[in-house]
Amino acid sequence: MAFSEELAISAQGLVKSFGDVRALDGVDLAAAPGTVLGVLGPNGAGKTTSVRVLTTLLTPDGGEARVAGLDVVKDAAKLRSRIGLAGQYAAVDENLTGIENLTMVGRLYGNKRAVAKRRAVELLERFSLTEAGGRPAKTYSGGMRRRLDLAAALVASPPVLFLDEPTTGLDPRSRIDLWEAIEELVGDGTTVLLTTQYLEEADRLADRIAVVDHGHVIAEGTADELKSRVGGMRLEVTLTHCAASFAAISALESMSEEPVHADGELVVVQVAERSGAIMEAARRLSQAGVGADDIAVRRPTLDDVFLSLTGHAPADEEAAVEAELELVVA
Amino acid sequence: MISDTLTLAERALVRLPRNPDMLLAFTVQPIMFVLLFAFVFGGAIETPGYGDYIDFLIPGMIVQQIAFGGFATALGLAEDMTKGLIDRFRSLPTARASVLAGRTLADVATNLLSMVILLVTGFVIGFRFDANVPEILAGVALLLLFGYAFSWIFAVIGMSVSSPEAANGVGFILIFPITFISSAFVPVESMPAGLRQVADVNPVSTMVDALRSLWLGGEMGNSLWLSVVWCMVLIALFAPLAVRKYRLSAGA
């Protein structure tokens, strides 16, 4: 088919306003078949609105989007049988059992009861929910509900899958389980658009990452490309006395090609490698007779991406928007 | 469309017994109301023209219970909205109207169940039909139509509020007075002027009057065809409103 050569997801200049709020202000996105596109951004950036437009739940005010070769507005009805959606609220019926939930979704896709049930059993098995399949979903843990929600999105084996913050609020173990499930799907050729607030998640799963803010895509690229824009890992030393910062800088400066920053008790060194950095720093500091309360290596975070791309952290952005809104209201 | 509607109606019915609050509302609560009215108020209420208060009460009580039958629709829709299930249904290749049609269809089944429970309770405490089988069945059919009309009112309520709790509050405040300021529990003649006029034009009164004449004999007047017209008007008004609300709920 034609769309196997074209992009599985493509959006150009999507615009969507709610009243005076412009949730999407010209969003461009692209994902090749069989890849994962991570959409990264803070709350309110436009991630969920983008997903809702691409899954036909919202009609855009402007722009164009195609998913699996179909126009999201003109071919909306046809498109719905080729996509799967798992949202951030784990949209399963709590009063139905796992198997009833999946069977219902299968029948709403137009399958006969027996076919829907067989598929439900298959999916429960795949997501390690076979034992829990006969219990109402309200007895499930958060991780189990997300797995059931993901299974519901996969009932029709859709070629394109949308996951809106699939791991928000999950414990680390459940998060890793879900990541493995997603990786398996992509291995089978599914195209995935994944929104997330966690750089770590995008880093692990996404082939390409689009960073959104205020309804715009402000950066796009592979995880490595984005990280190089942010800078590498940071070694952070908290000194016992800030008076020792000069001694600390001279002890540590040959560890990095970048200049060492000091701010009060905090000394920051850019390092290329994580391994050994803490030991090395501790050795140097003790040789120089500098006392440290804490030494840590920090990976770049979403905050760092924002800091480097926009010049301020996402929290500041929100505060700025609120201030702006107050001005408008006044 | 039809199979989607049936699937979603089945879903609403399967989940009902697993929700203890709702199950009580459809089973124990009507029995309790019948017993309270019959034996606490019954002795103090004069019902000229009817054998005794229990005969007078049962049709009124059934109409009231059926008017509230759509509560499951209001609560269910409000819950689906807040929990994201509506988004899931919308993202499926499912007929859009089937979410509402499935809910309201399920109400018809639960209404039939409450009707049976109330009639059995009625028989135990002495209620008797004074009617032939077609008249009894006509009453049942009329009640189901009436319940269906009220389900659409509840569908609009369910999609107009922010949470199931709010749907509960709004539903009670709106529907409770409508069922009480009527001929359901006391003869309208006993009410003070003002209230009495309200009770006279209240569709619940029309409905109760029609049911009493079908099941207990007596003067039919216009009440039967007027009740049918009322139900049609309510459906014509609230079904399109509910569908509109459903469309708008996604902000599309």
TrEMBL record, chain A:
The keyword S-adenosyl-L-methionine does not apply. Residues 9-239 form the ABC transporter domain. One of its GO terms (molecular function) is ATP binding. PANTHER family: ABC TRANSPORTER ATP-BINDING PROTEIN, DOXORUBICIN RESISTANCE ATP-BINDING PROTEIN DRRA. One of its GO terms (biological process) is doxorubicin transport. It is a peripheral membrane protein. PROSITE patterns: ABC_TRANSPORTER_1, ABC_TRANSPORTER_2. It comes from Solirubrobacter phytolaccae. It is found in: Cell membrane. SMART domains: AAA. Keywords: Antibiotic resistance, ATP-binding, Cell membrane, Membrane, Nucleotide-binding, Translocase, Transport. Belongs to the ABC transporter superfamily. Drug exporter-1 (DrugE1) (TC 3.A.1.105) family. This is ATP-binding cassette domain-containing protein. GO terms for cellular component: plasma membrane. Coiled coil: none annotated.
TrEMBL record, chain B:
One of its GO terms (cellular component) is ATP-binding cassette (ABC) transporter complex. Keywords: Cell membrane, Membrane, Transmembrane, Transmembrane helix, Transport. The chain crosses the membrane at residues 21-44, 56-78, 99-124, 136-157, 169-188, 224-243. Residues 21-249 form the ABC transmembrane type-2 domain. It is found in: Cell membrane; Membrane. PROSITE patterns: ABC_TM2. It holds the Pfam family ABC2_membrane. InterPro entries: ABC2_TM, ABC2_TM_bact-type, ABC_2_transport, Nod_factor_ABC_transporter. GO terms for molecular function: ABC-type transporter activity. Belongs to the ABC-2 integral membrane protein family. This is Transport permease protein.
